[in-house]
Backbone:
């Protein structure tokens, strides 16, 4: 079986299928376009000549574009540093920026096709950032403590770090605990651990839950390509249904509908939990 992360095109297809079958997109829209920008403005104010924005593991840029459009209304000039290891994802992000046209005209983008760990090794922490976006990627960080402390180091004194992390009710968290050998490169820390890292350096953290669901009905249909893509993402295995032993495929599908995850089941829909914790980090008020 081949890790999904080693197949960038397949991973991108799986992410698109997932976004089309979860209400997380609606919740993420509100978070990225309203809640986080409002929290940033409240923390930073609007007097900065240049607003510095950093995003980690941006994917196709869906969340970042929403945030940047909202922030552009409050800041005359924005410099956005993008860190994303997949060239395919960066290409998709650039195309999405192009589609927005004048809404992002005053945003200068600095593209970095690398992991955060690579960026930390190659870039000296000279620039301080007013907003640092870490959406759904902490599971892929090799050294969580080192990465979080680095981000806090490059946070402006009035800035804000926004992190989303799978809650205990999240399907990916449940899958990684049930099938650790499948979920290569994926290990989600408890939110409490993240908060503890920031508490150690004296940061102020607030945590809230963003409830979300995903419809996995296509996974029940063997001839559904959408279902196959969703299974790939849930297991982090490329072409999982085709390459995994039949008994393992059946076991995964059965696990996805266990009472701890299942929200609703009917003839045309099977929805399971996919909740996220939202962690906002600031420097203490001096």
Residues:
């Amino acid at each position: 079986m081949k890790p999904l992360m080693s197949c960038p095109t397949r991973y991108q297809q799986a992410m698109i299928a997932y976004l089309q079958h979860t209400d997380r997109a609606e919740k993420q829209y509100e978070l990225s376009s309203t809640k986080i920008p409002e929290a940033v403005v409240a923390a930073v104010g609007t007097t900065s000549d240049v607003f510095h924005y950093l995003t980690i593991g941006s994917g196709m840029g869906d969340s970042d574009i929403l945030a940047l459009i909202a922030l552009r209304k409050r800041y005359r000039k924005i410099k956005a540093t993008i860190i994303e290891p997949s060239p395919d994802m960066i290409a998709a992000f650039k195309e999405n920026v192009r589609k927005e046209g004048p809404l992002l005209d005053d945003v200068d983008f600095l593209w970095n096709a690398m992991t955060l760990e690579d960026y930390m090794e190659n870039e000296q922490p000279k620039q301080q950032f007013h907003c640092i976006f870490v959406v759904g990627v902490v599971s892929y960080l090799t050294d969580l403590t080192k990465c979080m402390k680095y981000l806090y180091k490059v946070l402006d004194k009035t800035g804000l770090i926004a992190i989303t992390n799978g809650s205990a009710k999240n399907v990916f968290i449940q899958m990684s605990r049930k099938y650790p050998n499948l979920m290569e490169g994926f290990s989600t820390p408890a939110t409490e651990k993240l908060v503890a890292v920031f508490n150690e350096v004296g940061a102020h953290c607030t945590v809230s839950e963003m409830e979300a669901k995903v419809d996995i009905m296509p996974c029940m249909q063997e001839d559904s390509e959408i279902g196959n893509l969703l299974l790939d993402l849930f297991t982090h295995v490329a072409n999982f249904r085709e390459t995994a032993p039949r008994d393992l495929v059946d076991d995964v599908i059965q696990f996805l509908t266990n009472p701890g995850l299942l929200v609703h089941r009917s003839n045309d829909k099977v929805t399971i939990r996919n909740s996220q914790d939202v962690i906002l980090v600031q420097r203490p008020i001096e």
Q: What stands out?
A: The CA atoms of residues 60 and 93 lie 4 Å apart.
